[in-house]
Amino acid sequence: MKKEELYEAMNEIDETMLREAMSFPKKKKAARTKWLAAAACLCVAVVAAIGIFLYRADSPHHLDLLTKFPLNSANTTLLICQLEIDGKTVKYQQVSDNAVILRRLLGELYQQDESCEWYYPADMDSLMYLIRKSSNEDITLWKFNSFSLNEGTTLTYGDLYRFFGVDSAADIVKITTSPSKANNTDFGQSIQKEVGTRTYTDADDIRLFYNSTVNVTFCSETDWREVYDPGDRFTYSFSTDATDKLTSGESTYATRVITLTLADGTEIDSMRYDALGGHFYEYGGVHTIPLDEETVDAMNELFGIQ
Amino acid sequence: MENNRHLRSASQIQKDCDIVQLYWARDVEAISATEAKYGHYLSAIAQNILCNPEDAEECVNDTYLKAWNSIPPHRPAMLSTFLGKLTRHLAFNRYQYNRAEKRGGGELPLVLDELAECVSDRDDVEQIIDRNELAAAINEFLRRLPAKQRAMFICRYWSSDSVSAIAARFGMTAGNVSVTLNRLRHKLRQHLIERGFER
To answer: Which chain A residue has the Cα nearest residue B93?
Structure first.
């Protein structure tokens, strides 16, 4: 097909969608300020440790803010809420209650009910982060935690990918792997340094990872104990007979913390790979079904695990 | 045919249904009313494509003529999009004529280059594209997008708005707009492949 044919065919775009697009609300871009000293000073009295924040001209300001302003130090309880999104029960965890900052980051309204409204952060339409505004004007930031996997629920990494708008490997621009930090002794840190952080941007590598994971099924919250085998299915050059895998360093060699960077800057950072058990698992503790040997070999080769 | 003199003057008319009624009544004030309400909008569409004020004005005037000749029998529910499509089609034809004559510029060459990423950009004589089916596939693709992304896509590939104009309109950086549009083009390509329009 010629590009001109595609262009001309767009003349038949449904008129309702055309009109909606033409009347889409115009936004003022949030003013880019270099320092938030005033807001930070206000928050210091409430939060134990707040750094001075510097906008980087080359990155969306709100993504920087999201990682800089933690929960109120007086509240260290992990708060989880559940939302119904596209027929799935999704868990979000609260990551910030800094209303002064969050009020400036309110973007498009996502959904609402009697008690609160949920917004995208400004300039974002990914569901990785949502801002909750309650009826009493309390504003908090929530981050995707996991899907709620009740008995009978079957979800795959493909469902997770599609949740964030990833329909193919082409939607992933970078994969970053780093070693587990479970063992932070001097010994553990030396192994972490040896394993190192790797970045994958080659399309073939990304496609391999995507194809190897898209159909991997999550265990439900009730059946994961039936499929999870704490024993090692695979052995490697670093495998030992020690029962305490942490101090032996096995876990650090065998585990990869995986971050997927999408084209819009969204980072999916909950994935973990365990070469000893030959399966993926999530930061929140959700496991996947064991991988077949061919997939384990492919992942090990990709991640440099031998 | 009735002459609806009880209608207000063209400069005061705002509702599309009133303007369409003028066309049906064959009242030439329909053209004045159309120009008053949609002249700037149609000029912007034509200018984005042609980047030449004279050619753009000519396309807009042709739009009024085509509207006069097609209403009736049409009775468009949304006059803006009805007229916008006419202007876009006329302007694109003019662009192709200008390109053959080695004239013109504007945003359209960039838009077409971007759309080339979605297709093979070959004349495939073995594959006759059914335009209605292609249009249906494009509409299906757009319906599945979030509203903001859909609006951005339409602004770029239907209106030929520049990336900077889209960034200003949606309150984003030009870089973010480019990245978002790039991702949408990839998705469209995959969508067209799945539906057999591309291989």
So the answer is: A8
Q: Name which of A17-21, A219-223, B58-62 the model is least confident about.
A: A219-223
The residue among A306, A173, A302, A192 whose CA lies nearest residue A246 is: A192
Torsion angle of C-alpha atoms B169, B175, B181, B187, degrees rounded to 10? -140
CA distance A216 to A158: 8
- Residue range A168-201, pLDDT digits in tens: 898 899 999 999 887 778 888 888 999 999 999 9
List, in order, residues 6 or more apart from B192 with CB less than 8 Å away: A1, B118, B119, B137, B198
Q: Residue B85: its pLDDT value, please?
A: 92
pLDDT confidence of residue A208 = 94
Task: Take residue A32 and report the two structure tokens written for it.
Answer: 């880019």
Our CA-based measurement puts residue A231 at a distance from the nearest CA of chain B, in whole angstroms, of 41
Top residue of A4, A5, A6, A26 to mutate, by most chain B CBs within 10 Å, is A6
Nearest alpha-carbon partner for B88 in B165, B158, B9, B162: B158
> Which of A11, A123, A263 shows the shortest C-beta gap to B89?
A11
pLDDT tens digit sequence for A46-74: 333 333 233 322 333 444 455 554 444 33
Are B122 and A11 within 8 A, CB to CB? no
Cα distance between residue B82 and residue B78, in whole Å: 6
Q: Give the mean model confidence (pLDDT) for residues A153-172.
A: 87
Could you give the C-alpha distances from B119 to A2, A11, B114, B124, in angstroms and in order? Answer: 7, 17, 10, 11
**Min CA distance, A137 vs chain B (Å)?**
24
Give the integer Cα–Cα distance in Å for A174 and A79.
30
Q: Region A243-260: what's the mean pLDDT?
A: 81
Cβ-defined contact of B111 to A7 (cutoff 8 Å): yes
pLDDT tops 70 at residue B59: yes
Its pTM stands at 0.49
Task: Identify the CA nearest to B18 among candidates B85, B76, B87.
Answer: B76
